[in-house]
Amino acid sequence: MKRLRLWLRELNLSQQLTTIIFIAISGLTIFIFAFLSPEINAFTTSEMYRMLHISQESLVFYLNSEPEISPQAFENSTSGVIHEIYDPEKDVFIPLGSDSFSAQAEESIRNNVRPFNRDVRDYQMANPDDKNSQILYSVVRLNDGRYLASVMLAASESQFRGLLVNNIVNVNLLVAIMLFILLTLWVTSIIYPLNQIKTYITKIKNDEPAVLAINRHDEIGEVADALRDMEFELSKQNREKQEMIQNISHDLKTPIATIRSYGESIKDGIYPYGTLEQSVDVIIEHADRLEKKVRSLIALNKMGYLLDDCPEGDTLNMNEVIDKVLLSLKVIRPEITFERNLDKNVLFHGDEDPWRIVVENLIDNALRYAETSIHIDLHPGELAISNDGKQISEDRLGKLFKPYEKGTDGQFGLGLSIVYKVVSTYGYHIVAENLPHGVCFRIWKELPKQELKAIQKEKKKEEVKARAEQNVKQNSRRKKKKRQQTGA
User: Fold this and answer.
1) Same fold for the pair 219-303 and 316-447
2) Topology annotation, domain 219-303
3) Which spans in 206-275 are helix H?
4) Quick check: 451 pLDDT over 90?
5) Are 348 and 316 in contact (CB under 8 A)?
6) What is the DSSP letter of 34?
7) Domain residues of the chain, as ranges?
8) CB of 363 within 8 A of CB of 325?
């Protein structure tokens, strides 16, 4: 069976169809001759006996009503049945009509009638003219003690069996032909669009203009739609990559040219920006810009090979990661207020360096757009960084994490794609949401129910403890105020 499956996989669809039809017809033929043929023989025998009984009913009625009726009064049978009356006392057979039994048939009837003790009994004997067939006959006892014997001619049985077999074979053959036509049409309807898809993919691979004209609502149509969407997205990304490369080339060229020109000027004893210190500061500023751009490109390339090879479970203290990032970034815009709502000892899954890049990129992005404040919320399994800057247009919310997608004041379109790569690698989700006054980037992952219950239980304890401390402070203030009033 395994070899058959492997062999079928090497055939194309047309060859597979032909093979399946051949196997189906062979199986049908084997079924007809090996399993259905005995059933046909049994059915034929049953029908022959039924015909014998039907032909005997009227004769039995007349013979019982008029025992002295002349046998010559009966006409020859036209249904392939011969009738004779057997008188056991005289041991003679009286034909009803001009046809009579053979000697072998009379001898078989004579032997079976002597122990006869029922009204109707069916028998069969070998056909002396054809050893592969049987002669069927039925015997009925009359009221006067005689017997009516009826023999079915072998030709009638063979004719009925042949007609029945031919009808069954013809019906099955018609079904097989219709099945073959339907399967051919069905496979053709699959092969043609598959060839279109193959041609379409080949043209895309060779960077040639390609159109996929398939309009179906089945799985092939879904594949065609997915391929068209993929081609559109790849074309868009290629255009964006080209644009990004041009922008990066220009952005890298500018600081390099500035550093070179300032360096040459200083070497010649000329200070292009006032004093030596100011000119060197310009060089350092452009070197920092250049370093930041190169670092972003290296980070994107590195994250492309990032794997989750960390031990199972949450082991990274995110409180420490956020503290380190804020220590280095909050000096960029000292006027921005950082509001932190951090649970204690929140652990995330993953390594420190990738998560630090995530937090740095999100906070750097927030610093670029924030007007007055940035909010950082950290809870078990969740990190949210929001700012009170401008909202993001709805058509851009779903594209922010794609490579080379730049924001309104973005630089390379790489930062958020790096964030998405790290977050998804470690099994977390990220989404950008517009707030009533600002934008929020939220990272989270699904926590087990037991862990959620433990967290909720711990939060309730902390809330009860906080309320108790607050009540103590309020009571202390009241007592202090009361003492002051008493002393006054």
Assistant:
1) no
2) Helix Hairpins (1.10.287)
3) 219-267
4) no
5) yes
6) I
7) 17-171, 219-303, 316-447, 450-488
8) yes
Measured distance CA(258)–CA(251) in Å, rounded: 11
pLDDT digits 0-9 by tens, 361-393: 899 888 888 899 999 999 888 999 999 988 888
Number of residues written out for the chain: 488
Q: How far is CA 279 from each of CA 68, 208, 242, 289, rounded to the nearest angstrom?
A: 147, 51, 34, 16
Contact 381, 438 (CB under 8 A): no
CB 195 within 8 A of CB 207: no
Q: Are 338 and 302 in contact (CB under 8 A)?
A: no
Report how far residue 136's alpha carbon sits from residue 52's, in angstroms, rounded to the nearest whole number. 9
CA distances from 55 to 60, 77, 82, 208, 345 (A): 9, 9, 10, 83, 101
CATH value of 17-171 in 2.40.128, 3.10.150, 3.30.450, 1.10.150: 3.30.450
Nearest-Å Rg of the Cα atoms of the chain is 49
pLDDT digits (tens, 9 = 90+) for 406-419: 555 555 556 788 88
N- to C-terminal Cα distance for the chain? 104
Owner of token pair 């906080």: 466
For residues 314 and 393, give the distance between their C-alpha atoms in angstroms, rounded to a whole number: 35
Extract the tokens encoding 146: 């005689």
**CA-based nearest residue to 87, from 71, 74, 98, 102:** 71
Helix or strand holding residue 68 (H, E): none
Question: Quick check: 55 and 79 in contact, CB under 8 A?
Answer: yes
pTM attached to this predicted model: 0.44
Architecture of domain 316-447: 2-Layer Sandwich (3.30)
- Both tokens of 195, joined, read 């060839």
